[in-house]
Fold:
Amino acid sequence: MAAGGPGPGGIALVGAAAGAPSCPHGPALLFVKTSRGKEEGRRFYACSACRDRKDCNFFQWEDEKVSEARLAAREEYNRNHQPTFTHRQNVERYKKFVLLPLSKRRFCQECQQLLLPSEWEKHSNHQFLCDISIAQLKSPSQFLYPLENKKTNAQYLFADRSCQFLLNLLTDLGFRRVLSVGTPRLHEMIQSKSSQEEDFGVRSLLLDIDFRYSQFYTEDEFCHYNMFNHHFFGGEAAHETCRKFLYEDNGERVIMVTDPPFGGLVEALASSFKKLMAMWKETGKEAFSLLGQGNKEMPVFWIFPYFFESRILDFFPSFSMMDYQVDYDNHALYKHGKTGRRQSPVRIFTNLTPSMIVLPVEEGYRFCTICQRYVSSGNQHCEICNSCTSKDGRRWKHCVLCKKCVKPSWCHCNNCNCCALPNHSCEKADSSCFVCGKAGHKRSACPSLSRTRTALQDDKKKGQKTLKKVKMGICRRSAMKHAIFSRKKVKNKKKET
Structure:
């Protein structure tokens, strides 16, 4: 994968590399550190899933020679940070658990684990959920604690409204298999309906980094998977499970639905999704055959905030963004029904033809005959742009100078030569560096800042040297005074004797 643009702190993603070292989250990704205005600096490996060193502190320079002792210690560390039970062991434990009477079904909230009676004593000081029903076991996301690190796990779970809409849309479009990548709630809704309705012909395979779900699903229903480096923790067996799922019915009537962490790197996600799409493409069949289309891409719903539109389209030019607002149960802001900037910014990006995505009229969506797609009620068609241009549900306005539609709260700034908020600071325009005002880099990678830092460091070193000299001078003077005083003392004693 090609290197991305400079990220925060002058760091850019290079991508997956053959023979990359591993951390508990699988093979590390290769990054490059840039500084002092240089295009490329020293390369290093870091955890693919955790951007915060507090969550995973793995780090290694690409050209670093690692000793055998350190490699052995790393392997031991990785082993110790794997789940207590394997997926197969969890499946066997689940079979025993469902045979227990209701009064003996317990779930440890602290360890997030289903407990068999023989294990109660080990968890005696922990909080329990008791009397776990079969219905609860069919909906594990309802009682598992959501992992809400927005850069790693970000388990913001679909609200019932959005989950039901997605499932209805998929069935209406004729899909019969759903590759659920990081969408546990959609997966469990499909699983639940399959067990309750005989004529419900949709199946789902969940790929997720949260291994806790292995307690509730078989190896044909769940694969432990890292979507940032396309790593199947179950090895070749899990990879084959995914491949077979995509190959069923000659690869037809299958769609990938993914809801990645919003703080994740788009470049890394896009690389993994392309590999999953390539796995499907090996079937040699054309997608959308049931829909009368001839596109050789696996159908995809990528659910992500609208402000990542340009980044997603860079990697997937065939995608387009739908106006539907996806909302979540456990997110304070991403809720449907709010107005203005409080509306959920999360949208559906897809390679399906936009006119096929029918949005609910009762929620205010309407069909634009010119754009041939459903849009929100506030998204009015601009005759100059010849498009429904709003991204956030509000009616946008056209700026003649910018030659595009902009947010209604923005106005054209002659200093910046673009539209922005009225109270914005011109010298802090996104198009230029905060420090030197020049375009092409951010403040963290500013050459001027680097020179300033170097100068400050040099001054600091000079100051430290001066302070050291002063201290040495004081010490020498003290020593000389002490020596003179001692000599005088000796002379006086000799005179007295």
Summary: DSSP finds nine helices and 25 strands in the chain. The first helix runs from residue 68 to 80. Residues 428 and 434 are 5 Å apart (CA to CA). The chain has a mean pLDDT of 83.
